[in-house]
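ok so I'm stuck.
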Amino acid sequence: MAVASSGTAARERPPVGGRSLRHFAWDSLTPFLLIAPSVVLIAVFVYGFIGYTAYVSTTKWYGINPDYTSVGLRQYTDLFGLPRFQADVSNTIEFTILFLLGCILLGFGAAILLDQKLRGTIFFQNVFLFPLAISFVVTGTVWRWMLNPNFGINLLFDQVHLGFLKSPWLADTHTALYGLVIAATWQMSGFCMAMFLAGLRGIPDELREAARVDGASELQGFLRVILPLMRPITLSAVIILGHISLKIFDLVVVMTNGGPGYATDMPGFYMFVATFRQNLYGRGAAIGMVLLVMVAVLIVPYLVWSMRQEVER
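replied:
not stuck anymore, here's the structure
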């Protein structure tokens, strides 16, 4: 009886190796099943449409009805030969440089002042961060009124007897782009302030004390201790703000609509005009691919650098 019972138990007990194998297979498969929907959606709606846009940019699609007749790279050669697109690229480069300098310098300066932990610090932090709570559309509407040549800032200059500072602003081809820079910098400098302030407050006091013990002045400690530690934050700010500036669209539409002339025209705005107003879908797709390359040139080196930093750690 004892032998029979042990034999029956042996038959009823499932094989340990088989159960472990099934559990291992399921545990290995579960993570892939969880991320599969996201991977499929990204593959279709991001990379799939990027591929479709690249394909359309090599066709002569003009009008509402699709025309997939291949023209090779003619859309690109024609595009770079247009005076309007040449002005767009020039405007984008100038806007990006001025926008980055303004945001980083103002944000870093504000962060240094707020790091002194004076009275009212919390209030001024909220003041600097407030513009981030509104969209570029609202910002553009407000600054379009403020930069109106007939009132706004010019009227203020008259009242404080600083009439020599008056400018046509958005009505002049020489100053219209600077109006966009002012509005964009006003909105995004608070973002830089928050990043730099977090970095400054993350620096251990021991490092500053060690610099003082070694005989370094406040300026030397700032230049040789603080600034090097702020380098990764500065790089991150440049990448994020550069990405925003290259794709700027809504601020241009609200403030200047690309004018006067092509003084504030940008590739993103021209892509919209070419595609949805002129029905030049092939040209619009080509502009979109050029924008993609511009953004990739800015972001890909940063991603490579970040991955190397992680590997070194």
